[in-house]
Automatic annotation (TrEMBL):
Pfam families cross-referenced by the UniProt entry: BetaGal_ABD_1, BetaGal_gal-bd, Glyco_hydro_35
Protein name as it appears in the record: Galactosidase beta 1 like
Source species of the chain: Phasianus colchicus
Family, similarity comment: Belongs to the glycosyl hydrolase 35 family.
This protein's UniProt keywords: Glycoprotein, Glycosidase, Hydrolase, Signal
Domain Glycoside hydrolase 35 catalytic: 35-352
Active site: E182 (proton donor), E262 (nucleophile)
All residue ranges annotated as the Beta-galactosidase galactose-binding domain in the record: 511-569
Beta-galactosidase 1-like first all-beta domain boundaries: 374-485
Length: 608
């Protein structure tokens, strides 16, 4: 029994990627004033989420929402006192399992900017420093006081060995590590203290990791907060002048990437004061201004969460000002993790300046395989589904050139994109040539679909992939990156399902993921889904792979949806990988009977 026809809004997440090169590196390019990840220019758009302010069961939800907002990194404080309640007594379990939080971020394709302090401020109790330091009443915190440094070094020798294997250079996702926090705002102004920390961080993390500092965007604050060997970054909010604020950073770092490590999306609350409120429009405009400059931005906070137990800190501005339990911060994700108008405004800005999703980090966690010529599925041990083949145009192709494959070498269909724009489809027994033009270095992608191996007949060692070399005007293309795609695993882990409310989207030509949700009308019976105006692709509902659809080819026009995979009383997640082109206003229909032949039943929908 099928469900009545349901319209379905879908949000698009396009197949976007960053070119990745084999060696894992994350460095500063002082010539090009940018970061480089694996040798390629890289800009992060990051958000602060403090695991200590979110119960562990909610970590995945919050990080997924950050990811689906288009951010590619998460900035993480490590509160020392959260993990060392007593001198020499450590706790990294449950909500304190910082390694689990970092690994979850990696699983979701997020890079990490780690801020282990030892002082972090953050309106956290004693700025993250353990209260037991004060058992020595005359201790001088955040200085070269031997009692303080002894406790700091003991703590860092416990924490940083947990960090090192997670550094990007070591195969992890931590791209940079901050030393101390706004030290330039502290009265002590003890450069030997920063020097000591630099020595300890280098000793425990190694020479490759990018170490940095953060200070208010004022020259006098940067004076004491910065140190040779630590890249100086600044923090400022939407009420600051972007040019002046980055001018302060340039005062210390005349070359290198512009970095705002704390772009204030809201603000903290004190007991007795008003709840902070910062205009979404103002925040979005400031973000756009910075992204326009090519700056790297971390939004503080993306999700504030809660100061549970006794963890809220205080400020002192002439008088003691305790901070409230809620760290909502008027952040894009509310204290309870709900998207706000500010999140949508930020997402819109990011979508204009950055690839909304860097999907290859998620879909191909094993990373690319570098090869002079294409490798087949069997060589890389990919059984089913899809692989992405990527190379760069070796020269300017100002007049259309012929991209061609040897006959029958496309096994089975290759969807070709140049600079992420769809060029057409290469076929096993059909079209093996396309006309393309572009500039040297443009990214050429071939998304290769395995349509199923021969199951009968003499020779059914039916190898899959690009079985021959592609050429451009008869000159072979070389230096390929090959990405085995683990799409089903990613979808079963919740990707790319929009953790944000549905938003309508325009269909586009070529490969793209479309995702959304739908409700069943109180029943979960067998049904059939129709794809009005779609071309060819793959469908998942609630992580179940329903198979290939190809209404453009027919004869089958619907896919069977077993009632057993549907949910009643809660949203059903749907993900579509459309390979050749979705209709301008993409939607799906659920019918109570199949359509096996190209003839339509003359419903008005069939005209779509
Ligand atoms: C003008 C800001 C001076 C104090 N710095 C603040 S108030 C809110 C934020 C957090 O405390 C954050 O931990 C600080 O690094 C920067 N900052």
């Amino acid at each position: 029994m099928g469900l009545p026809a349901l319209g379905l809004l879908l949000a698009a997440a396009l197949l976007r990627t960053e070119a990745a090169l084999p060696a894992r590196s994350f460095q500063i390019d002082f010539e090009r004033d940018c970061f480089r990840k694996d040798g390629a220019p890289f800009r992060y758009v990051s958000g602060s989420v403090h695991y200590a302010r979110v119960p562990r069961p909610a970590w995945r939800d919050r990080l997924l929402r950050l990811y689906m907002a288009g951010l590619n990194a998460v900035q993480v404080y490590v509160p020392w006192n959260y993990h060392e309640p007593q001198p020499g007594v450590y706790d990294f379990t449950g909500d304190r399992d910082v390694e689990a939080f970092l690994d979850l971020a990696a699983e979701l394709g997020l890079l990490v900017i780690l801020r282990p302090g030892p002082y972090i401020c953050a309106e956290w109790e004693m700025g993250g420093l353990p209260a037991w330091l004060l058992w020595k009443a005359d201790i001088i915190l955040r200085s070269t006081d031997p009692a303080y440094l002894a406790a700091v070094d003991a703590w860092l020798h416990v924490l940083l060995p947990k960090v090192k294997p997670r550094l990007y250079q070591h195969g992890g996702n931590i791209i940079s590590v901050q030393v101390e926090n706004e030290y330039g705002s502290y009265y002590a102004c003890d450069p030997s203290y920063l020097q000591h920390l630099l020595g300890t961080f280098r000793a425990l993390l190694g020479p490759e990791v990018l170490l940095f500092t953060t200070d208010g965007a004022q020259v006098e604050e940067l004076r004491c907060g910065t140190l040779q060997g630590l890249y100086a970054t600044v923090d400022f909010g939407p009420d600051s002048n972007v040019t002046e604020a980055f001018g302060a950073q340039r005062h210390i770092e005349p070359r290198g990437p512009l970095v705002n490590s704390e772009y204030y999306t809201g603000w903290l609350d004190y007991w007795g004061g008003p709840h902070a409120s910062t205009s979404a429009t103002l925040v979005a405009q400031g973000l756009a201004d910075m992204l326009q400059l090519g700056a790297n931005v971390n939004m503080y906070m993306f999700h504030g969460g809660t100061n549970f137990a006794y963890w809220s800190g205080a400020d002192f501005k002439g008088q003691y000002k305790p901070v409230t339990t809620s760290y909502d911060y008027d952040a894009p994700l509310s204290e309870a993790g709900d998207p706000t108008e500010k999140l949508f405004a930020i997402r819109t800005v990011i979508s204009k300046y950055a690839d909304l999703l860097d999907v290859l980090d998620v879909l191909s966690p094993s990373g690319p395989i570098q090869s002079q010529f294409p490798l087949i599925f069997e060589t890389v041990k990919q059984a089913h589904g899809f692989m992405l083949y990527r190379t760069q145009l070796p020269r300017d192709i100002l007049a259309p050139a012929t991209l061609s494959a040897p006959p029958h070498s496309i096994c089975d269909r290759g969807y070709v994109m140049l600079q992420k724009e769809y060029q057409g489809t290469l076929e096993r027994d059909g079209q093996t040539e396309l006309r393309v033009k572009g500039k040297a270095g443009d990214t050429l992608d071939v998304l290769l679909e395995n349509m199923g191996r021969i199951s009968f007949g003499a020779n059914f060692s039916d190898f899959k992939g690009l079985l021959g070399n592609l050429s451009l005007d008869s000159r072979l293309l070389r230096k390929w990156l090959i990405y085995p795609l683990a799409i089903d695993a990613a979808i079963q882990q919740g990707w790319p399902h929009a953790a944000l409310p549905k938003s309508s989207c325009r269909g586009r030509a070529g490969p793209a993921f479309y995702t959304g949700t739908f409700e069943t009308p109180g029943i979960a019976w067998d049904t059939f889904v129709k794809f009005p105006g779609w071309s060819k692709g793959q469908l998942w509902i609630n992580g179940f792979n329903l198979g290939r659809y190809w209404p453009h080819q027919g004869p089958q026009q619907t896919l069977f949806v077993p009632g057993s995979i549907l949910r009643v009383g809660c949203p059903n997640n749907i993900t579509v990988l459309e390979l050749e082109g979705a209709p301008p206003n993409p939607f799906l229909l659920f019918l109570d009977q199949p359509l096996f032949n190209r003839t339509f039943n003359h419903s008005p929908m069939d005209k779509e």
